[in-house]
Automatic annotation (TrEMBL):
<keyword id="KW-1133">Transmembrane helix</keyword>
<feature type="transmembrane region" description="Helical">
    <location>
        <begin position="210"/>
        <end position="227"/>
    </location>
</feature>
<dbReference type="InterPro" id="IPR036938">
    <property type="entry name" value="PAP2/HPO_sf"/>
</dbReference>
<protein>
    <submittedName>
        <fullName>Phosphatase PAP2 family protein</fullName>
    </submittedName>
</protein>
<dbReference type="Pfam" id="PF01569">
    <property type="entry name" value="PAP2"/>
</dbReference>
<feature type="transmembrane region" description="Helical">
    <location>
        <begin position="29"/>
        <end position="49"/>
    </location>
</feature>
<feature type="transmembrane region" description="Helical">
    <location>
        <begin position="86"/>
        <end position="103"/>
    </location>
</feature>
<feature type="transmembrane region" description="Helical">
    <location>
        <begin position="178"/>
        <end position="198"/>
    </location>
</feature>
<feature type="domain" description="Phosphatidic acid phosphatase type 2/haloperoxidase">
    <location>
        <begin position="106"/>
        <end position="221"/>
    </location>
</feature>
<feature type="transmembrane region" description="Helical">
    <location>
        <begin position="150"/>
        <end position="171"/>
    </location>
</feature>
<keyword id="KW-0812">Transmembrane</keyword>
<keyword id="KW-0472">Membrane</keyword>
<dbReference type="InterPro" id="IPR000326">
    <property type="entry name" value="PAP2/HPO"/>
</dbReference>
<feature type="transmembrane region" description="Helical">
    <location>
        <begin position="110"/>
        <end position="130"/>
    </location>
</feature>
Amino acid sequence: MIILYHISQILQEGKSFLINNKNNGQHRVLLGFGLAFLVIFAVWVGLVASQSSFIAGYDRAIYGAIRNSNQAEYRLASLWTQVGDTIVITTISIALVLILAIFKKYGYAIFTSLVMICANGCNSIIKHVVKRQRPRIAASLNATGFSFPSGHSVGSMSLAIVLITLICLLVKQKPAKTILIALCVCFTLSIGFTRMYLHVHWPSDVTGGWLEGLTFGLLGAWILLWSEERKAAKERLWQ
């Protein structure tokens, strides 16, 4: 949550350039964050693929702290986790792209499309390369396919970063902006938690999914902010 807060602050600083024509180089900070998370994610993939003892201990420790014996909580988690399903995330993403295109925000629409397509496409590739098996799960949950990384976590985190970026660039009222960003953060964290709570993913699957979503989201936001700054600089030259 702290990381996402700092990212929103960086994006807000980037927006100030577009308004005040002051080159503060915030897109380079986003690039630094994106590359850092890319390295962390690559290391995480290597640890999971090699069945590291660190990952095994990590999963045991978090699973040991999560109890899902409460039936009401279990049913609630089973319902909420469906919001992070690939079909739902894809539908929301397509609707968002169409809305942005209707309002002629073509750069933002392309940004949204690229982040969501690349993040989920990479996730599918990694799943079939690592081929990690899921934990024992209840048949009623109907969770199929390989376990790592968690597709729900990748999709929800990627969408959250996209939405946070758009909120920082498009929403003017600070209270509304703060509330919307907080909702985005709670959304991705809660979806990831349900995957662990329901035991349909190992905790390291969820962490890997968040790392992957952060990586693609930040690199996409960097490209968007960089292109917006270049566009603004060119417009100043013609004034």
